[in-house]
Amino acid sequence: MEEKFTQKSMEALSEAHNFAVRYKSSDMKVEHLLLALIGQMNGLIPNILKKMGINTIELTKKLEDKLNRMPKIEGGTSDPRPNGELNRVIVGAEDYAKKMGDAYISTEHLFLASYDNNSFLRENGIVKNQFENVLNEIRGGRKIMSDNPENSYEALEKYGKDLVELARKGKLDPIIGRDQEIRRAIQILSRRNKNNPILIGEPGVGKTAIAEGIAQRILKGDVPENLKDKTIFSLDMGALISGAKYRGEFEERLKAVLDELENSDGRIILFIDEVHNIVGAGKTEGSMDAGNLLKPMLARGEIKVIGATTLDEYRKYIEKDAALERRFQPIMVNEPTVEDTISILRGLKEKFEIFHGIRITDNAIVTAATMSDRYINDRFLPDKAIDLIDEAAAKVKTEINSMPTELDEVTRRLMQLEIEKVALTKEKDQASKDRLESLEKEIAELKEEETKLKSQWENEKQEAGRLTKINEEIEKVNLEIQEAERKSDYNKLAELKYGKLATLEKERENEEEKWKDRNEGNGNKLLKQEIDSEEIAEIVGKWTGIPVSKLLQGEKEKILNLAEHMKARVIGQDEAIETISDTIIRSRAGLKDPNRPIGSFIFLGPTGVGKTYLTKTLAHNLFDDENNIVRIDMSEYMDKFSVTRLIGAPPGYVGYEEGGQLTEAVRRKPYSVILFDEIEKAHPDVFNVLLQLLDDGRLTDGKGKVVDFKNTIVIMTSNIGSEIILEDPKLSNVTKEAVLDEMKHRFKPEFLNRIDDIIVFKSLGKEHVKNIISLILKDINKKLKDQFIKIEFTDKALDYIVDEAYDPAYGARPLKRFVQKDIETNLSKMILSNEIPENSTVLIDSDGEKLTYKVK
Length: 856
Description:
Rossmann fold; 4 domains; Double Clp-N motif; 856 residues; 57% helix; 5-stranded parallel beta sheet
């Protein structure tokens, strides 16, 4: 018996059994079955009743009331059997199935048999003919040949959305530009055979928007005669695949969609976004994929399909299947230019203004297009520019709905004073009474200020709300105007256009004028109700880590004084510091070459003169963290194959998925200092990879992705020519030329020619060394601060350290080792043996043979 029923009808009978138990009935009744059918989740019966205009909630309530009035068995029964009436319904349902040519008994058969055998449905206004008409409309003449026929009913409504209907409701964004691509798609759709365009382009360039643009043109009638009565359904592949548990269920759903398309006599065009997903979709052992179901229909021209996919996925999936590829006609969708993007954003501006309830300046639109093009390189226009506008608007909207900073500060201060007041009321002395009096006076003033600020905040919020409401009304009227134009209802059109719309536009103009006057006349506005270039720059900075917003006064001073700050930490290398500082100043003022790194330098000099330390100091001044550098130790790249570690292994090699050390680091932090340490140790072939980086500010990694280096500072260090520099501590021009000549012998001209500057570091003199020792000893003082101990040192001590530790061949490094080995070790021993009490000073001196330590 069970084999005759569909899954949904079995579910309904099982649920009817449960209702019989719940209502303590002696047997299963038709009312129990009707209750199960009407309340069935995703069932056919509730859908039909809804289309008939029947209130299913009210119907369910009447059924429940009827069941509650029926006699009950005390204690109930665990296994009620169907009564005679219900048995007649089941037999009648079988007759209906045979009459309709169905292989299974479905829920509609049970419902119709219930109608014949029970008066409840007739008594509640359900007309059998009307039910059968809606049923035929949904079934579309299909026979039930599986136990899950509901999957094939209204398949397009279930697994897709009507783009023309969405356009009618004003749910689609306006399409600006792309006329050429839309015309080409319409031209392909108008062909007799192989009339299936496929839109190919990078993610975010507007492929889906083109399909929406065609839907909008169909709605306006701005298409050839053969497309005027058409509609476009966008297929949701996720909904189609999800929940298809059994073999063949996915194919059944897709076949139902394709059958609806075929039966529509070409009236419906199917849009499949990410069309490459149909190749292999639903494929299991013993079944074919979705692509093979589509091919015959596409070839015969029985269905029209618009596809959209990226170039990579087209090559990977569609091109491989030659039979599928020849059925589609490709349309290349290129990334729009910055100028085109500005036009697109201007077209979308009103939609975003209405949604966020704020004003978007034209300055913000231009900045979003130009900055996204320049700084966000892993995404495409116009998508990335639209996202910038959206996020900046969301940020301002959030601030409007949050308490302004000025009001928040007053409220918190008031709360603090109220707590203090409660504490002081318990005190009886005169000083406390005086303090309480002044406190009450301050609280009264703050309350007055709080009331004033709250009132101002509410007024400003209401202003923003009024303008948003008017804009929403205008949008609704524009939709009504479009509908009236389509229906040629000229009376309504005139009434809307010259009456309602004109009034609303006048209201908006007045509101904007008021808002502008208040904005100009009052510099103390609490809320910002518009976005301009500054908000866009802030979002770009948050996305990329690149500081592109206008410099605040404090930041300007920091950049201008960069050289002074660096000289305080790096001793004796003023020329190198000035060169680096000037480069950063040019970059932050916006005068650097936009197609190259901020700066590229080679630091030459003996070991220990501060080449690497200067790089760390630069990172400290730019990012407040000296470890915030991408450091590549070139001694690890001594063979020619090690270049793959920098940019990632090519396809087919081990480590292909991991990415390169350099490219991955810069992709994550586009604004960074890159240090190539000791470049002379690397294999010469490694430098061929850097040519592209230094010249064009970009590098292609092993996966073929382009990594942007335009916001990096590239520093390379080398010890080439150290011997020559040590022989001439003053670094004359002759010495510099000799060092640069040696560089030319070691590196190719095309590499050296791409470097902005080669800076030769001087060897350190005795005065420089003394200053370095002073800095090292200051660091020790910082470490001892927590223990309340301070150290001081005499000139004799400094001279002794210089004589003992300094060697021009090794630079400043031995100084650190000496201080660590001698001074830090001796101080540690004295601290542990309690020779240095808290709040004391240790004077470090020298007797000519060793350092002496005296506690004061």
